[in-house]
Amino acid sequence: MSTAPGPGDYSTVSDPERALKYAIRHIAGDRAEIVEGVITPMSPSWAHENAADLIRERIGPRMRELGLRAGSGNLDLPGTENFYIPDLAVVPAGLAARTEGALLPEQTLLVVEVTSPTNADTDRTVKRRRYAQFGAPLYLLVDRQNAVCTLFSEPGRLGYTGVDGPRPFGARLHLPDPFDIDLDTGGL
Question: 140: domain CATH number?
């Protein structure tokens, strides 16, 4: 008689990555992500949400001109145990309208993560490295604990080679093409 696998025993699962990502989408709920194999529930504070909303509001006019949409939809990192929900991701409107599942970081034009006391180091290091490896062209880190913003660009397998910042909240930060605007970071 065989026994069912115990908690955490994935030895009988043919594809543990697929099983983990299925669980996050269908069991853990809408506001959970996987960071380096660990299911992490998300419950952002109002201050956290305020920072993401201010960025969305400030880049909104330019996004509309360019036919872009912003949201916090799922981003899959295939071949890894990572499935992220960024605080904000900007993508082409047509792609947003026809995608029911997760997108890939390389399909974004800008990814924004806003740190919280419980995830700041993850956003500063792990996600920055992973977004670069998976081709997210621009990664904006809004570090609320240090009151600075840093824009990372030029992604590669070893990380981002372009870095603008850290800049203190209140300073302007240039978002390059396709945006080509100066982002006001005051009030974040």
Answer: 3.90.1570.10
Q: What is the pLDDT of residues 65-122, one digit of tens each?
A: 999 999 988 999 999 989 899 999 999 999 998 988 889 999 999 999 999 998 899 9
Tens digit of each residue's pLDDT (9 = 90 or more) over 143-186: 999 999 999 999 999 999 999 999 999 999 999 999 999 999 99
Whether residue 66 lies inside any domain: the answer is yes
The answer to whether residue 118 is domain-embedded is yes
Tokens of 25: 């989408």
DSSP 7-60: TT--TT-S-HHHHHHHHHHHTS-TTEEEETTEEEE----HHHHHHHHHHHHHHH
- Are 44 and 31 a contacting pair, CB within 8 Å? no
Query: Which residue in 172, 187, 188, 180 sits closest to 62, CA to CA?
Result: 180
Token pair 């240039």 is at which residue?
174
Q: Is 7 within a domain?
A: no
The answer to whether position 125 is within a domain reads: yes
Find the domain containing 144 and state its range: 44-184
The model carries a pTM of 0.87
* Angstrom distance (rounded) from CA 105 to CA 87: 13
